[in-house]
Amino acid sequence: MPEGDTVWRACKRLNEALGGRELTRTDFRVPSLATADLSGRSMTEVVARGKHLLMRVSDGLTIHSHLRMDGSWHLYRPGESWKGGPEFQIRVVLETADWVAVGYRLPVLELVETEKEDTVVGHLGPDLLSPDFDRSLAIANLAAEPERTISEALLDQRNLAGIGNFYRTEVCFLLGLHPWRSVSSVDLGAAVDLSRRLLKSNLRRAAQVATGVDRPGQRTWVFERAGKQCRRCGTTILTAHIGEPPQDRVSYWCPTCQPDL
Where in this chain does the record put each FPG-type domain (predicted)? Predict the structure, then answer.
């Protein structure tokens, strides 16, 4: 699933292409929006809120989308071939004089009043990539369930928004935290600060990097490295699911560097 940095970059590209420009054609291909037509309105801005995309349109409307596992937005020039997937996977097309934005496989796509965006993103905790990120609130949210595992708490977007499985896994490794460690036994300030620092460090590059080495096969400490040797100590990396379905996720950890205390 795309995480906060990936969504932030997508919004930045969309905003640079569409922001301040008139929509010359819109084509919503989901039943609930089949009759919606925003042509003639201007795209005022495209912003990220955690893993959510908010495309604000003049006259007080917002196109809200979420990529989840497979969704994506692609930008094309008029007349350029669309290569984001087969046509039946297209959920929306937004055109201006200079750009065509195509949303593929979007599991969440809806129109809301801009002044009521909180109905779709108001449940989120502080956004780790927001300039006005509320660190104290994020820590308080995490601490509210002290017996919960740190893995589940970091992934819960109601606590703080933007962390996905990659960052959750790598943060736990870098802080020496076993994935099943309880929140009450964790330095939550350190976990929040490191999460924010890692997300911000990857804003300007396409790949997600936790090791500081942006080369194929060297970008992660433990994420998706099950059965391989730990880069620090040589112990075999383990993997298991954590959490309850349908919210369970695969976790990776080094049993030596992240002992089960």
Answer: 221-259
